[in-house]
Design brief:
The complex is a heterodimer of chains A (about 625) and B (about 350). Chain A has about 625 residues and is of the alpha/beta class. Chain A folds into two domains: about 550 residues, Alkaline Phosphatase, subunit A, CATH 3.40.720.10; about 30 residues, no CATH class. Chain A contains 17 helices and 18 strands. In chain A, strand 15 and strand 16 form a beta hairpin. Chain A is globular, with a radius of gyration of 24 Å. In chain B, the strands form two sheets. In chain B, strands 1, 2, 3, 4, 5, 6, 7, 8, 9, 12, 13, 16, 17 and 18 form a 14-stranded antiparallel β-sheet that branches. Classes of the chains: A alpha/beta (about 625), B mainly beta (about 350). At the A-B interface, helix 8 of A face helix 3 of B.
């Protein structure tokens, strides 16, 4: 189903692109170090913007209350997609994003930081973007595109693994997964205490004192485009923000942008988002939000002060999202100023579900560990009013992550919808249906490579620099964007996931999922996402044959991609690491039923002064 | 001639002592308010403070009082004072406010070197060169101080209010009222009380820099104020008047750690021209002290503060120093109850 926007249009450049694609379709990729310079200024620029750990429902155009006018406007100009999939974690997604093939093929069968002993050294588990794939940047550069990157790489640290070596002619990158957004640049991993940055392939020394990641990446991408635009060649710009990945950091003047906005608590915000999503048409009217995770308290049971403490973290997160939106606006303004905006295909995604795990605790480790020592040196400050500043490490936790992932269940790291569903906005020449919401297409991050290559008129090679290259598994969206089809996939097509031994297959509206306890049963469960996007009702007993079919597809997926179930997983002991369940029996919490009372009245009741009637 | 001479000398010494006491010996006027004195706590917070003050003043020449009228003998005063205060924070007209009750006690010793006194002003029975000293022990004049925020601080009633409190500029209005309940003997030159009502009007201002979180806080504080004194109609049988004493107090405070902050303190005072029976005596006072305060939060409830200041400008002939050791215990009902619950 396509929800039509108010101002559909056919981009005039689209016909040109298709014609161009036909004529240069046989073009082969060239050697990485010998870029061709072809004067094909009629090919579109491509701006690929990736948010880091941003949730599905955070943008205003997806139902969020966060102020994101730039991306909302982009959504009105382009098309939003409701069923776009990524991987449960960032580097895994990025491997697929740049290679167009499954993570188990591209080298990120598991995250390098969390690889299981039996996966070490196995093909597809290199922990970096391996040489079985070629990055889309290499192919674009070889075919006359300028290729720029600013932001997070997370696909390898060695000289032959960094952005410069994988096709980006200009880059300003942090090579690791996350850390301080300021100039102190502490890395989340103690093994590499400072985040390594590169610029044009060379290590960056000390960052400027006023460094703030989101602004710095924006500045650089604009600088690269400006410096390279003289020859008229199109560009591929990969703007890979590290926002709003934790630690939640903001410049001082943005710290209180959402002051007290979230004091009402996560339950209320979830319901508000769901209502807006229904209104916008992101979800159907009958869709409900997934249950609050069993160990999380209802926010109304928290004291107002605790709600303020918890709300402050969401305030920071929202501030980071809005700041990013603001900076994206700078890029758009620049493109308009140089007359390239209308010739630029813009793709906006997030790399995985919102972060609900306690990464800070994982990083800080146990007292006496190196992680703890690193935390003491880098981010020990945690006073309420100092959160968000340099030296602090705030995360917003599972309750707010569930808000970001309304209406889905769970969050980053898990193959439930809350871990793998992402917003997707595509806009620019060749994109038909301004303001539409496409709820029909089931899309995957692997699709971006074939889409971009088709837009640029480039064929994905079978070999590259003498080595065999794994084929692209994604499907191009160009036909869909042009309005010829509603989806690049048929009802028989399927998508598969595996990370940390959590697994899933989606085919049509059906999904099987196997998650560690306590979020799953450890075995396959069957869900119908059309009726139950929150994956609340296991239909295994009602539809055993469907489940069997999907399990067989999983076997095919695992076989095709060389999946190795790890003998260790960070989630295998998840149950032990989670807080105890919050009691839900009648009479708990003690003030149940009185939540609607004003705070002062509650205090009066608690003090026993007036008679309780 | 003896009587007038003696009265003159007594007046002379009395004026010196009065100046010493008013400037340094009285509980209200003895020292500055202190760093972070006007920071607001939650409505319902109680504070008990005990201070030990050691004040030392040495007048080395005649600069303090005009030599054309009287020869001022070298005087040395030493005061050991205990100042106890109880303060409570509350909300007044929807503004965060506090009220404090101050009680003083201790002893003051004054020594006059009669070598410098002209012979006609020597007290009866006192030979040139003989030392003249007098002491006082007991309670000084109690006072009550009210402070109301005018700008920059919302009411701090609930925990939520407190958590959202992140001041930048704040301006208060503060008044102090002292009553002459302290020890006073009109036959003695040295007393603990002033024998007159006195008061102060102040406009405390502060600016907070950086995060309002322990370990990060930095502030600049400025408190202009004026002290006003009623007449003492029994000052050795005479009527003593004093002009207002203008005061400017400033602090730059900074957190070194979560529990430890320091402050650079400035106290400047000018005015306080004395008149005996309507006739000006001596010149007005001008003293500027610079000091340092260190504050350590021992527990959630308990604070130790130590400070030292000395005059660095103004009347150079009037050396003084103040050493302060202060213990503060504060509590709030919810904080105490939370501890009880945590104990379980």
């Amino acid at each position: 189903m396509i929800l039509k926007g108010k101002n559909s249009f056919v981009a005039p450049a689209f016909a040109t692109i298709l014609a161009l694609a036909a004529t240069v379709g046989a073009m082969k990729a060239q050697a990485e170090d010998a870029p061709q310079t072809q004067q094909k200024s009629d090919r579109p620029n491509i701006l690929l913007i990736v948010a880091d750990d941003m949730g599905y429902s955070d943008l205003g155009s997806y139902g969020g209350e966060i102020n994101t006018p730039v991306l909302d406007k982009l959504a009105q100009r382009g098309v939003r997609f409701t069923d776009f999939y990524v991987s449960p974690t960032c580097s895994v997604t990025r491997a697929m994003l740049l290679s167009g093939t499954d993570n188990h093929v591209a080298g990120l069968g598991n995250m390098a930081e969390l690889i299981a002993p039996n996966q070490i050294g196995k093909p597809g588990y290199e922990g970096v973007l391996n040489k079985r794939v070629v990055s889309v940047a290499s192919l674009l550069r070889d075919n006359g595109y300028h290729t720029y990157m600013a932001g997070k790489w997370h696909l390898g640290l060695e000289p032959d693994q960094i952005p410069r070596a994988r096709g980006f002619e200009r880059d300003f990158s942090t090579l690791v997964g996350g850390g301080s957004h300021f100039d102190d640049a502490w890395n989340v991993e103690w093994q590499i205490p400072k985040m390594p940055y590169t610029e044009d392939g060379k290590p960056v020394g000390k960052l400027p004192e006023d460094f703030y990641s989101t602004k710095a990446y924006t500045d650089k991408i604009i600088q690269f485009i400006e410096q390279g635009r003289g020859d008229g060649n199109p560009f591929f710009a990969y703007l890979s923000y590290t926002a709003p990945h934790g630690p939640l950091h903001l410049p001082d003047d943005w710290l209180r942008r959402y002051k007290n906005r979230y004091d009402e608590g996560w339950d209320a915000i979830r319901q508000q988002r769901l209502a807006r999503m229904r209104e916008l048409g992101i979800v159907d009217k009958g869709v409900n939000v997934a249950d609050r995770l069993y160990f999380l308290p209802r926010s109304s049971a928290l004291t107002p002060a605790v709600r303020v403490i918890q709300g402050r973290k969401m305030e920071l997160y929202a501030g980071m999202v809005e700041y990013m939106d603001d900076q994206i606006g700078r890029v758009f303004d620049y493109l308009k100023a140089i007359g390239e905006y209308d010739n630029t295909v813009i793709i906006f995604i997030s790399d995985n579900g919102a972060e609900g795990n306690d990464l800070r605790a994982m990083v800080a480790g146990q007292v006496g560990s190196m992680g703890f020592l690193h935390a003491m040196n880098s981010f020990a400050e945690d006073a309420h009013n100092s959160l968000g500043r340099k030296g602090t490490y705030a995360e917003y936790g599972p309750a707010w992550a569930q808000v970001s992932m309304v209406p889905f269940r769970l969050f980053k790291g898990w193959t439930a919808e809350g871990g793998i569903r992402s917003p997707l906005i595509v806009s620019g020449p060749g994109v038909r249906g301004a303001g539409d919401i496409n709820k029909e297409a089931i899309l995957h991050v692997m699709d971006i490579v074939p889409t971009v290559l088709e837009l640029a008129g480039i064929e994905h090679p079978t070999t590259y620099k003498g080595r065999e290259i794994a084929p692209v598994q994604g499907k191009s969206w160009v036909g869909m964007l042009a309005g010829r089809t509603q989806s690049p996939r048929t009802s028989d097509d399927w998508l598969g996931w595996e990370l940390f031994n959590n697994r899933a297959i989606r085919q049509g509206d059906w999904k099987i999922s196997a998650l560690y306890r306590p979020f799953g049963t450890g075995d396959w469960q069957l869900f119908n996402l059309a009726d139950d996007p929150g994956e609340q009702f296991d239909l295994s007993d009602q539809f055993p044959r469907k489940k069997q079919e999907l399990v067989a597809i999983w076997d095919e997926y695992a076989e095709r991609n060389g999946v190795i179930i790890g003998d260790r997983s960070p989630f295998e002991q998840a149950r032990k690491g989670l807080p105890d369940p919050v009691s839900e029996f009648d009479g708990y919490p003690p003030l149940r039923g009185l939540e609607a009372l004003p705070y002062e009245k509650l205090i009066e009741l608690m003090s026993g002064k007036p008679e309780v009637k | 001639m003896t009587k007038p001479r003696n009265r003159s000398m007594r007046l002379l010494v009395g004026i010196a002592v009065a100046a010493i006491l008013l400037s340094f010996g009285n509980p209200a006027t003895a020292v500055d308010d202190g760093a972070r004195a006007y920071w607001k706590a939650r409505d319902g917070t109680h504070l008990v403070s005990v201070q030990y003050l050691f004040l030392d003043l040495q007048a080395t020449d005649t600069q303090m009082f005009d030599p054309s009228q009287f020869i001022f003998p070298n005087a040395h005063a030493e005061a050991k004072l205990f100042l106890a205060s109880y303060a409570e924070h509350f909300t007044l007209f929807d503004r965060p406010s506090s009220i404090a009750f101050n009680f003083i006690g201790g002893s003051v010793d004054v020594n006059i070197d009669t070598n410098f006194a002209p012979s006609q002003f020597l007290p009866t029975g006192v030979r040139r060169g003989a030392s003249f000293s007098q002491s006082a022990t007991g309670f000084g004049d109690p006072s009550v101080a009210l402070d109301v925020n005018l700008f920059g601080t919302p009411p701090l009633i609930s925990t939520v209010d407190l958590m959202n409190y992140e001041p930048t500029w704040t301006i208060d209005a503060a008044v102090l009222f002292g009553v002459p309940f302290g020890q006073y003997d009109d036959d003695r030159l040295v007393n603990m009380g002033l024998n007159r009502i006195f008061g102060r009007i102040a406009l405390p201002m502060k600016y907070h820099i950086g995060p309002f979180a322990a370990g990060y806080m930095t502030s600049f504080e400025l408190t202009p104020s004026v002290w006003l004194f009623d007449n003492n109609d029994d000052f050795l049988g005479q009527n003593l008047e004093n002009d207002p004493l203008w005061q400017l107090e400033a602090h730059v405070t900074h957190d070194f750690t979560r529990d430890f902050y320091g402050s650079l303190d400035l106290l400047y005072r000018r005015g306080f021209q004395s008149k005996i029976n309507g006739v000006e005596v001596g010149s007005e006072l001008e003293i500027g002290n610079l000091g340092l305060t260190l504050n350590y939060q021992v527990t959630d409830n308990f604070v130790i503060r130590a400070g030292y200041s000395t005059n660095v400008f103004g009347d150079s002939g009037l050396d003084n120093s103040v050493v302060r050791l202060q213990l503060v215990y504060g509590w709030h009902r919810l904080m105490q109850n939370m501890k009880k619950l945590q104990g379980h």
